[in-house]
Amino acid sequence: MKIGLIAPYRDLLDMALNVKEELGVDIRIELGDLSEGVKVAKEWEKEGFDVIISRGGTYQLIKEAVSVPVVEIKVNAYDILRQFKGLLGYKEVVGVAGYKNVIYGCEVIGEVLNLNIVKIVIEKEEIGPKQVKEAKEKGIKIIIGDTIGARSAKELGLESRLITSGKEAIASAVNEAFRLAEAIKAEKERTEKIKTIVDFVHDGIIAVDKDGRISIYNRMAEEIFKQPSGKVLGKRVEKVIPNTKLYEVLKTGKPQIGQLQKVSDTMIVTNRVPVIVNDEIVGAVATFQEVAALQKVEHSIRRKLSDRGFVAEYSFDDILYKSKKMDDVIRQAQKYALLDSTVLIVGETGTGKELFAQSIHNASLRKNGPFVAVNCAALPENLLESELFGYVEGAFTGAVKGGKVGLFELAHRGTIFLDEIGEMPIGLQAKLLRVIQERKVRRIGDDKLIPVDVRIIAATNKNLIDMVRKGKFREDLFYRINVLHINIPPLRERKEDLDVLVPHLIKKHAARCRKNVKGITSRAMDVLKTFDYPGNVRELESIIERAVALCDEMWIDVGDVKFSCDADEHKAGNELYRDWSCDIKPLEFVEREYIKKALELTGGNISEAARRLGINRTTLWRKLKKQ
Where in the numbering of this chain does the PAS domain appear (predicted)? Predict the structure, then answer.
């Protein structure tokens, strides 16, 4: 820090040198009264001094001449009073001449000492001698004053007494200068940090004061609006920024979030908010980004999430239905998507519980966050716990070096889907309950909690209420996850949905098998509508996939459906079903024909045929040898 003291008179300079030595501070001290002091101050300003110290009229002139902060060596009543020594009972008029900040309060001293005092306030250095001369002409013989007042009196042959400052006043001013310099330094650092942040964020930023004049205009704003900051700072925003609506925010005090704005050929998305202090609008701030840049970032994030499998692929538009029951359930789920509470999806196997979970996520405010799915029935308790909550290095034998992040942490700002939650071990349920309540996770082997912002969607095909009664599922956890409840009806209760599901599945698997299958006959569709589908949509898809594979014509018929369904699992008493179920072939024959069909469809590719048949390659080879 560079601090300097300009002394208007020699005694003050000598005392300042003593104070410097006693305090052990590094300051520059020079002599300079009034205009001479101003010259010194201006030189110091060029040298980059942080604070300047001076006194009296010299202080006043320096303060007006430079932009550097100036600290005053203050003159107090005791400093003035010392110069009245020996004047008690003096009958003549005593003049007190000097700058206002030096002689302030002299009248009170006159009243206390019962003296006749004339106050001569000097405002400019060049008229000071004239004012003192006029006082002499009025018969004043003694002048008490600052440097200009006392010097002018001495030159006119009057008795002059200089109001001096003590060492305490000098030391106080020096300490204040250092405190001020420290504060200025800290403020400069803070300002530079803010400026760096403002200039290097990806958003453009414009701030205006209450009059709409631009006070902040960062580097990104320069790029977007193609105008340098020097041409816009201090200008009214509507004069220099096209299509701006910041003045509306100043007027109404209402934020404008996510507004589209066109700048030349560039489309930007803008957020505008008022700056309110003590219920008064004192300015407004706009942040904005190019839409193309946002889309690029979003694409990058989604690609990374996709690479890790943490993306919800489906939305409500992907759910095919025709029934009133499904329409009601979807409307309910769409309302739940707008909330952030835990959702419990109940439904039989194959009804599409994960499809609903992904759709809820993609319709929620968390849609740009991760969607993490975990099947609670697929992993043993210890492995499931480490997957959900993660672990630190050395937590157990075989723990990965550096530890592992749990799925709850990976789902931060997004959604975690706990499928088959009814299969979660009872011991792990207590830990899950704690995470839901505290919104924090503790990795295995760790002693600290990690905050997570995650929405939980759980699903089950079990009767959780019955499991609670039997002590297989925690009652407190049940109430925590069953805040919003969705019950997906089984396919047998909404047979009209087959009218849209079957054509869709035929088209899907015909394309996959590269077959020209156009659809299904009404007779075959009637047969499909007689089944109960314990496996629901998943079972229906398996039936259609096999039927497409077996079909030799453009339309799936009853004969193709025959090979795709087990007569014992469906309504064998139905007339339509009885028409084709009477001619049952031996199982070996059906298997041989089915394998033959699979090989025909795959062009003799053993591996692909085995994959479609759901068996491994070795098993298929063994069955072919038997034939």
Answer: 190-250
pLDDT of res. 575: 39
**3-class DSSP assignment, residue 114:** coil
Residue 296 lies in a domain: no
Residue 601 maps to which CATH number?
Answer: 1.10.10.60
Instruction: Give yes or no: residues 407 and 438 share one domain.
Output: yes
The region, left, alpha or beta by phi > 0 then psi within -120 to 50, assigned to residue 59 is alpha
- According to the model, what pLDDT value does residue 582 have? 40
Non-local (6+) Cβ contacts of 450 within 8 A are 409, 440, 441, 442, 443
> Do both 150 and 229 map to the same domain?
no
48 & 150 share domain: no
Q: Which residues contact 405 (CB under 8 A, 6 or more apart)?
A: 390
pTM: 0.48
Better-predicted residue by pLDDT, 165 or 443: 443
User: For residues 180 and 197, is the Cβ–Cβ distance under 8 A?
Assistant: no
Run of H or E residues at 97: strand 93-98
Q: Which tens digits make up the pLDDT trace of 337-360?
A: 999 999 999 999 999 999 999 999
Question: Is 427 part of any domain?
Answer: yes
414 and 337 together in one domain? yes
Token code pair at residue 59: 């202080």
Distances (CA, A) of 166 to 29, 51, 191, 495, 605: 16, 21, 37, 102, 106
User: 329 with 385, same domain?
Assistant: yes
Instruction: For residue 311, give the nearest of 388, 351, 353, 368 by alpha carbon.
Output: 368
| Any domain includes 65 | yes
Whether residues 87 and 69 fall in one domain: no
Residue 580 has pLDDT above 80, yes or no: no
In the chain, the largest separation of any two C-alpha atoms, in whole Å, equals: 145
Residues 381 and 416 in one domain: yes
Question: How many CB atoms within 10 Å of residue 608?
Answer: 15
Query: In sequence order, what E strands does 225-306 have?
Result: 256-263, 266-277, 280-290
CA–CA dist 609, 305 (Å, integer): 33
Give me the phi and psi of 492, to 5 degrees please: -65, -20
Domain that holds residue 155: 77-164
pLDDT of residue 579: 41
Where does 201-287 have alpha helices with state H? 219-225, 229-232, 237-240, 246-252
Contacts 24+ apart (CB under 8 A), 214-217: 214/240, 214/241, 215/283, 216/285
Q: Is 569 part of any domain?
A: no
In a 13 Å sphere around the CA of 81, the CA atoms on its Cβ side amount to 9
- Looking at the structure of the chain, the number of domains it has is 6
379-436 pLDDT per residue, tens: 888 888 888 998 887 777 666 677 888 899 889 889 999 999 999 999 899 999 999 9
